[in-house]
Amino acid sequence: MNMHSDPQSSSTPPASAETNGPSESFRFDDTGALLETHLPFPRRQGKVRDVYDLGESLMIVSSDRISAFDYILPSGIPGKGELLTAMSRFWFDAIDSGEIGGKLRDSGIPLAHHLISTDVPDVVAKIVDPAPLVGRIMVTRKAEVVPFECVVRGYLEGSGWRAYQETGEICGVKLPAGLRQCEQLESPIFTPATKAEEGHDENVPIDVMIEQLGADTAERLRLMSLTIYEDAAKLAARRGVLIADTKFEFGWHDGQLILIDEVLTPDSSRFWAADEYTPGQSQRSFDKQFVREWLQASDWDRNSPPPPLPQEIVQKTTERYREGAQRLRGEW
């Protein structure tokens, strides 16, 4: 999701000194999933997150919305936004501690990110009920978004697997013949994608990034992305989780490239259980796999509003997200 320094407002400007009631500011579904926020600050809404402009900073609210096949579903996944926020915070803390990105800093390349706090700001708590926001917000620095998704692939799956089957390469990166679905690559590869406001991002060769951003910026983004992925993959592997692939977003803040948006969550990455990993077939993943599979098996035509999810699918998806987070935190 793009987070520019001047997000477009889709809500009323801040004016009231009174606290809005929960029914005015938040909409939940029957399971308790938070589907919408309507806070009195300028807002930019994405498929999952609502970004509010607080003046000197942004507040990113992770809702419990879930999307599939470019549609936002009418059903939410209870607790999903809190899990995503906790996972992003886990990785940002690992960057701050030096567990991720150490060799970048040793080589003179700073690795900074946009997270300031996960506490509800006073300016927000004075105007709206803060309780629904606790655990699901990030207060962040503003940044001018780099118009590329920085994708890193360590295993062959998804659009990368499809491209490999057709051409033997991904985004111009030639791969050895005979690789199997979900097979680990000899070394992670950087495969950027253009950012789309609607629909799917488009995978492109790094030459496209170089042409638009310049060689120095493109190379720095490549190096930062690969280093973050490699360090995170080692950390996750020690806890029994494989990070098959992921996408990062970066932005310019005070003349410096910083890591922005969510990072290394099941919505931006593919996580597998190491003890279940079997190359040559699709893997069980800690994300919305149950949702996609149920929709594919339904009679939904993908050209009309999607149907509500059965409670069983909601519950299984909630459990899948929670399991991934617990494994990473060493609680599994």
UniProtKB/TrEMBL annotation:
Pathway: Purine metabolism; IMP biosynthesis via de novo pathway; 5-amino-1-(5-phospho-D-ribosyl)imidazole-4-carboxamide from 5-amino-1-(5-phospho-D-ribosyl)imidazole-4-carboxylate: step 1/2. Residues 1-27 are annotated as: Disordered. GO terms for cellular component: cytoplasm. One of its GO terms (biological process) is 'de novo' IMP biosynthetic process. InterPro entries: SAICAR_synt/ADE2_N (IPR028923), SAICAR_synth (IPR001636), SAICAR_synthetase_CS (IPR018236). Pfam families: SAICAR_synt (PF01259). Residues 45-304 form the SAICAR synthetase/ADE2 N-terminal domain. It comes from Aporhodopirellula rubra. Gene3D superfamilies: ATP-grasp fold, B domain, Phosphorylase Kinase, domain 1. Keywords: ATP-binding, Ligase, Nucleotide-binding, Purine biosynthesis. Residues 1-23 have a biased composition (Polar residues). SUPFAM superfamilies: SAICAR synthase-like (SSF56104). Signal peptide: none annotated. It catalyses: 5-amino-1-(5-phospho-D-ribosyl)imidazole-4-carboxylate + L-aspartate + ATP = (2S)-2-[5-amino-1-(5-phospho-beta-D-ribosyl)imidazole-4-carboxamido]succinate + ADP + phosphate + 2 H(+). GO terms for molecular function: ATP binding; phosphoribosylaminoimidazolesuccinocarboxamide synthase activity. It is an enzyme of class 6 (ligase). Its EC number is 6.3.2.6. This is Phosphoribosylaminoimidazole-succinocarboxamide synthase. Belongs to the SAICAR synthetase family.
